[in-house]
Every structure is written in C-alpha cells, then in structure tokens.
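Here comes just one.
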Amino acid sequence: MNHTTDPNENDDAIAIIGMSCRFPGANGLGEFWTVLREGVECISRFSDDELLASGVEPQHLADPNYVKAGSVLDDIEYFDAEYFGYSPREARMLDPQQRMFLECAVEALEDAGCRPTTYQGRIGVFAGTLINTYLIDAIKSGRHDPGMDFMNFLETFLGSDKDFLATRASYKLDLKGPSVTVQTACSTALTAVHLGCQSLLSGESDIILAGAVSVRVPHRVGYFHQEGAMVSPDGHCRAFDENAQGTIFGSGLGVVTLKRLADALEDNDRIYATIRGSAINNDGSDKVSYSAPSVEGQAAVITEALSVSGVDPDTVSYVEAHGTGTALGDPIELSALTNAYRISTSRKNYCAVGSVKTNLGHLDSAAGMAGLIKSVLSLHHGKIPPTLHFKSPNPKLDLENSPFYVNGELLEWSETDNPRRAAVSALGVGGTNAHVILEEAPVRERETAELERPLHLLALSARTDKALRALASRYVEH
C-alpha cells in the first residue's frame, strides 16, 4: 500500500535525504545493507602473529581470558589529504577519526545532492567522537616519525581534541550553520541527531549533518574478558538470547543529512525516511551506579519521543534496541520499552526488536548511528534484517508478555493501513538516553509513474582526473 504524506500533517517531521557510513565489513550503504540482509557477522579473528605485530604483549596470548577478536574498520590509515587541502605532514598529525569524518561528511552531502558552495541556506553540523587513541598510541609506543612532531602543542591539540570535530568539517566544507561537537558516550550519535532536528525545527539551520565516529588505534587487537563485565567471552554479541554474556567493542562511523520534510518535498529531494519525533533525557541518580542503566529513565525518553511524534505505539513494527547483550542491560531495556508501550497498547508480540551489535559489535560513540542507518535502510527496502545468534530468549526479558519478539531471520515488512514505522534507541554510560521515531518516506506521484525514457545520461564529477576515473570504475562495478 502506498502512503502519501501531506507535509502539513506533521509540521515537525524531518527528512533524511542523505547518508554515508563506514562500518566493519561494509564500506558504504550498499555493502552495509548486504551485511544486514544476509545476516553477516563482521567480527575479525586474529592470529598470534597479527596480534604480536599490533604490539600485543606475548604473555597475553596465552591468557585464557584474552579474546583474540575485534570489530575492525579497514583502511583507517588512508585519507584524501589533497582533497581537503592538507599536507602529508598535517594529515599524519590528524586523528584518523577526524580524517574519516571529513570524508563521510562530504559523501553524505553528495548523497543528498547538496553542494555547500552554491546552497543558499545554512548547513549545520552536530557530531561526536571517541577519545583520540591514535595520539595515545603514538606517545605510548614512543614512535619517532619525523612527520609527527607531537611536541608542537597547538598543532597537536587542534588535530587531536574532540572539540574540533564538527568545526573542522564546517571550516573545510564552508558550512555556515551551528557547528557543535556532542559527547554523551554511547548515545552520542542519536543525541546529535536529536539536537540537529531541534536546530532545523527552530529555523537556525536549513540542512544538518549529524553523525558520530569511533576508531580505536591500534585496532587489530583483542581484549580481556572479565566475568560479569560488559565484554563477551568469545567475541560474539548475543543480544536478547539466554546465552548472552556481553558485547564486543569496535570501530565505525556514519553521517546523515537532515532537512525539514516540507522543504525536502518542495525541493524534490530523494528521501530515505522521515524522523517523526525524538527525545533525550538523563537517568539522574535513581539507579544502582553511575554506569548502570535505569528502567525509569529509558521508559521516560521512549514515552516522550512517542508523544512528540504523535505516533501510536500500536503502529510501530520494529525497534532497533541498544541491545548490548549484557546480563543487566538487555532486561532493563526491554522492561523500559514494555512499560512505555503498555501506556497505550495491550497487544503482545506484534513488534520486532533487534540489535545491529550482533553484526558489528558496539561502536561506542557511533553505536546509535549504526542503529539509525540500519533502521532507515530497512524502511527504505521494506525488509527487517535478522538479529544474529538468537536461539532462545533470555527469560528475564519476559518477551511472551511484552509487545515485542526477536526476529532471527530476514522478514518482509508487511504493509498496513499505516506507514511503516520504526524506533531507535541509544543509551549512554552516564545516563543520557536518546530515542528516535522513524517513518517510511512519503510516496509522491511522480515516483509511481512509469519512466518513459529507456536510457539516461549519467554525469560524473570529481576534483582530479584520477578521481574521476576511479569514480567511473566504481559505477561500472556497481
């Protein structure tokens, strides 16, 4: 069933008109959707030689608690420095997280068909990043690369500190809207999305880049498992399963381009999905510890997001949960979701719930971006990807009496009288919770009409001849 949307029906709706991502096993949206659709786990297993080459101490390799696995992002050492006007020396000084975010920001604008130098409105940036482990590793290892003079404090500070992630993108891309670095731990990405939506709705921005990046250096290393801690003993994240024992941390990044829905429709933009509403809050002190989650805090942010969106929980058919697969986190999250939904529905097991962490691991600051882009692609393609490693539900979740079920296989997203709708959660250590309500893109009449032209001219553009040829090759391969 095709659902057309009147932009006046929800004046606060935000359109997602562009996306870019780099995740383990997926260098771009197409590869990421393949990973999701086919249920691929993108966790790398390391040999002892690989670990030794990454600087792991030999005695760690024999420790039974040392897990030789990681969620690895490829090609973090590469950067198109010339494109952004950096010298090789400057590029080496720059945190890889900052380098990769710049590239993804450009890709997200290009995917939206937006050229900042000619766009008449204001483009803002809300984004966050992980601590700079690249600098820490360089200092710890005593690396003496003549191109990396870390004794130059100001240059090191500007190229390394979190504060400059968003403003660097604004400077290099000539973006004139608000430029704010966001830091709320694991909920950073969705918090950036929420703040970006608020900037659009207040009129201070016309387009927003919202995103997050998390890249650890060295990245081809394992980790130590400790009983009862957050990390998994075997490198698998089994969210919601009775055998869930934790998650695995990894690297990745994503950026989305946001615009007011009414403007996107007027400008005839391609729309992946819409954001009907979002909310953020904090748990406060009503929990067992600073790093612990809270049922009340999470339920409150979900309830608020649903209220702001005007969406009935009965019409939400997929929830992308934070889903870390921990003994404490999963039961609290499902309890909070159930409490929020039970305010207005008594239905059972009608809404699928999943976690992209079973594919990629936990991407820390960028975790919510992986969940958001997964959900947007699911709406765009009309399919709900499987949650991996799910055999039997954790009995503490009480799924049989909740509105939710865990889908372990690819599902066709059935059509109803309402548009397809999804929700995404991200929960930060320290208590900042974020929740976003998504809806499938409105169908416009021109999209349903048959194309009259059998052939189309494809125009390609790049800054250099080499880049242009590489771009042409990627189109041919696609």
Q: What stands out?
A: The first strand starts at residue 14 and ends at 22.
